[in-house]
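Exercise: predict the fold of this chain.
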Amino acid sequence: MTTCRRVASVAVGLLIAITAWGDGGWLAARPDYRWSFPADHWTRPGYRLEWWYFTGHLAAVEDARRRFGFQFTVFRIGLVPERPELDSDWAAANLFMGHGAVSDLAAGRHVFSELVYREAPFLAGFGRPPDPRLAWSRGPAGTDAEWSLHWNGTAFDLAMADRARGIALRLATRPLKPLVFQGPNGYSRKGAGPTAASQYYSFTRLATDGTVTTGDRTWSVRGESWMDKEFGSNQLDEGQVGWDWFSLQLDDGRDLMLYLMRDRTGAVDFARGTVVSAAGQARYLDRGELTVRATGRWKSAVSGTEYPARWWVELPGEGLRLEAIPELADQENRSELVRGLHYWEGAVALRGPDGAPAGRGYVELVGYGTKTRPPL
């Protein structure tokens, strides 16, 4: 384990050094990007950062009261824009970083797992069409099972396991709504500068079934998930240090994505959103069309970081006023491999103004407690 952590620390240190060099030949997100599906579900070499991101709410088939939230994220982190011209299979252009978490809502327990490998034989890799494997890696130390993400022809299958932490996911998905772009043509601005952007699309509702393991028990589960794919090379504007991101699935069939970018003072300096109708049509929101107000705080006893912990979300143009309430207070992901990396990624329940159930979702809070950019 110590050796694995040293290798990961060296690799991430190299990454941080490289990202300080400037553009360095990386491709930038563009408003006129020419999408091609299903090919764009696979990796997009030439961009510095790319991720496949899944969150969802699941319930045990045998007992619907046993509920789980889950996160599964694969990051491709570019070290150099092109593979080094070395006569070695071990010459790597990318890192594979995986994050997985299970929130056992009935037990009140959140467990986070992670790994970092360079793209190399027997360690990790990213597939190319028509290989159905989009990405894969070895498991954490002491875990025989691979972490993997597959294209199943209509959506995605994913698997992860961490024997030491006692969690595992093996899930299959299928779309309940068509793919939607986040921003016109999938060009998602994150700041005033034109290159502070990503190419971004989502499947906002995926029927999901499979198994979740917590401790010594494996549950058959079903529910719904949300999937994001983003890639770009400079997704933060100068002075930005983090974001609050919401993916909300409403009981009336609508879905809502919001992000609020924050500067070093904690102020929101850029915000955007998307409303997806029950039929799957997207409407894009400017900052003036949305309001997010935190009404609670939670402080991590481990990292010492204080996060917002309850929110009112208002979209007057959609007739929406929702309260997002964390299902568990402590859903903080704390990295042991990347120094200084911690963030809150948690399942939330939605209530209407009258307190009636209105849906469910996930919230991600990045950059709190450091006042510096996340080390990615």
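Check your answer against the key: DSSP finds one helix and 23 strands in the chain.
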